[in-house]
Amino acid sequence: MSERVRASVRLRFAVACGVVFVLAGAVLVAGLALLVRHNLQPRDGLRHPQYISAGGAWYSQWEREYRIAELRVAQVRRVYQADTVRNVVVVGGLALLPAGVLAGLLGWRAGGWAVRPVRSVTASARRVAQSHDLSERIAYDGPPDEVGELAGIVDGIIGRLGRAYDGQRRFIANASHELRTPLTINRTLVDVAVRRPEASEDVRRLGESLLTVNTRHERLIDALLALAEGERRMLDRRPFDLADVVEHVLDLAVAETAERKVTVHRLLDPAPTSGEAVLVERLAQNLVENAVRHNHAGGQVWVSTRRRADRVELVVANTGLPVPAYEIETIFEPFRRLHGDRLESERGSGLGLSIVKVVTEAHGGVVTAAPREEGGLTVAVELPYHQP
Predict the structure, then answer these.
(1) pLDDT of 91 above 60
(2) DSSP string of 104-128?
(3) Model confidence at 313, in pLDDT bands (50, 70, 90)?
(4) What ranges in the chain are assigned the alpha helix state H?
(5) How many angstroms separate the CA atoms of 81 and 1, rounded?
(6) Which residues pair with 273 in a beta bridge?
(7) Among 94, 114, 129, which residue terminates a domain?
(8) Total domains in the fold of the chain
């Protein structure tokens, strides 16, 4: 939970206290005004006082003066009643404003006291998340209330995640060993058989075919393990420059680009980010290999890195066969190959862009692809910017 979220919860609690107090005060002032108005109404015994009349002309004059005086008294009473009720409403309403602010401040203090245990749990959970050590626990030592129950549930989830992560890591290590060992033995045996002086031409052609298939299987296993590792592993985020990683990958691809007669244009501006540099190197390698291998002789590849606001960007574009727009949404799926080239093992196993997507998402980034009008593909990877 961020500072903004904590402040928002606390602020909503404070505002709710102030609003409730103002509404309750308004109802109280309205009731008081009605009560005062009612109490200032004339009583039945005072509404028409009884006087002893003497009769005659004198009585008529006295009666007229009495009526005039009664009207004046009624007028004064109405003005006094209106002024009194207005004063009650105005003074009460003005008093509600500072009282509402005071209630909000008290609610702010009470909200801080109420969310203090949640802050403690949040700080502990953040420490566990940033340490990437699933053996740590929140270890809440407060009373056994709702916050303590929540902390216990989170500790249980972290424990299960830790056990699942350890089991998955052991599985990847064992699978890597068990799958690579027989392929390594096969490659060694075939290579020895092909290099024997008495080996016939047919045996050598068969051995070369078997070595090609064996190499394809090794790449497939490496890709599957990288895909599983990219999806499951907890990233140890360390700062690095994406431009340095991409430049290293391009240097390693010089031989293949020269063999395929592909020209690579590089424009590598500084792009500092953070994460697992080895996985990002595999991401960049897959993009470059995809751009080189899905190209034509004499084609071109453009590779660039740059910073854009709070993101860094890696863009790889290449020439080649036109890519239909409807295939863009599926090229990041596992074992998806463009143009149906499943038999051309030299172009890969169909997991390259899947690994790119998994590694990008594991680093909190976004990957997009778009076909080029002249043919080929443009793939853009955006990763979070890291302040050096």
Answers:
(1) yes
(2) HHHHHHHHHHHHHHHHHHHHHHHHH
(3) very high
(4) 3-39, 44-47, 56-131, 146-195, 201-232, 242-252, 254-259, 277-293, 352-362
(5) 56
(6) 240
(7) 129
(8) 3
CATH number of the CATH domain containing 221: 1.10.287
For residue 378, what are the domain limits? 235-384
Which of 106, 129, 152 is where one domain is finished? 129
pLDDT of residue 24: 78
Structure-block tokens of residue 259 = 């063999």
Residues 155 and 207 in one domain: yes
For residue 224, give both structure tokens: 């599957």
Same domain, 242 and 355: yes
Residues 153 and 219 in one domain: yes
Tokens coding 303: 């590779």
| Residue-wise pLDDT tens digits, 265-279 | 999 999 999 988 878
Is the same domain home to 370 and 253? yes
CATH number of the domain that 307 lies in? 3.30.565.10
- 162 and 211 Cβ atoms separated by less than 8 Å: no
Q: Do 123 and 156 sit in the same domain of this protein?
A: no
Residues 252 and 379 in one domain: yes
Q: Which tens digit of pLDDT belongs to each residue from 27-65?
A: 777 777 776 766 666 654 444 444 444 444 555 667 777
Burial 324-351 (b: 16+ CB within 10 A, else e): eeeeeeebbeeeebbeeeeeeeebbbbb
Query: What's residue 315's pLDDT?
Result: 96
Residue with tokens 């005060």: 25
CB 117 within 8 A of CB 146: no
Give me the half-sphere count of Cα atoms (radius 13 Å) on the Cβ side of residue 57.
0
CB within 8 A of 220, min separation 6: which ones?
Answer: 349, 351
Q: Which two tokens stand for residue 383?
A: 């990763």
Same-domain pairing of 155 and 53: no
**How many whole angstroms from its chain centre is CA 230?**
19
Contact (Cβ atoms closer than 8 angstroms) between residue 346 and residue 287 = no
* Rounded Cα–Cα distance for residues 55 and 62 (Å): 10
The number of beta carbons lying within 10 Å of the beta carbon of residue 276 is: 21
In terms of domains, do 270 and 377 share one?
Answer: yes
pLDDT value of position 6: 47
